[in-house]
Amino acid sequence: MGVIDVKSPAVETPELVAARIRRALEYVDPGRLMINPDCGLRHLAPEVARRKLHAMVAGTAIVRSELGLPHPAQNTSVRTPASGGNDSITTGESHG
């Protein structure tokens, strides 16, 4: 799910990203949800793109914490034993 607007140089707050993720979780199981920027970031200034990606990761961490999921050290799926190993919210950069 794209949670970053790549057409705007305005940097989303982690709280806004978390709100977008929570809305998606109304329709998609956490184990099937992958968080990405909406398409690519190549049309933005590099510093803006980095700040947007930081907000995306921070917003994802907020929701992971709310769900009781650990924050992974790297870009990997998070699975919890209580869920049968199927709950994850992953982040990754889309290349589009």
Short summary:
It contains 2 helices and 2 strands; from the N terminus they run αβαβ. It is mainly α.
Task: Name some characteristics of this structure.
96 residues, two-stranded parallel ribbon, globular, 2 strands, mainly alpha, 2 helices
Gyration radius, in Å: 13 Å
Which strands sit side by side, in order, in the main sheet?
1-2
Structural class: mainly alpha
The total beta strand count reads 2
Poorly predicted residue ranges: 74-87
Instruction: Work out the helicity level.
Output: 25-40%
Question: Helix-strand pattern, N to C?
Answer: HEHE
How would you characterize the largest beta sheet? 2 strands, parallel
**Gap from first CA to last CA:** 13 Å
- Please work out how many helical segments DSSP would assign: 2
Shape: globular
Mean pLDDT across residues: 82
Q: In percent, how much strand structure appears in the residues?
A: 5-15%
Write the layout of secondary structure elements.
Blueprint: H1 14-25, E1 33-35, H2 46-67, E2 89-91
Parallel strand pairs: 1-2
Please characterize this protein's 3D structure.
This protein has 96 residues and is mostly helical. The chain contains two helices and two strands; from the N terminus they run αβαβ. Strands 1-2 form a two-stranded parallel ribbon. Strand 1, helix 2 and strand 2 form a beta-alpha-beta unit. Helix 1 crosses helix 2. It is globular and about 35 Å long. The two termini are 13 Å apart. The relative contact order is 0.25. About 15% of the residues have low confidence.
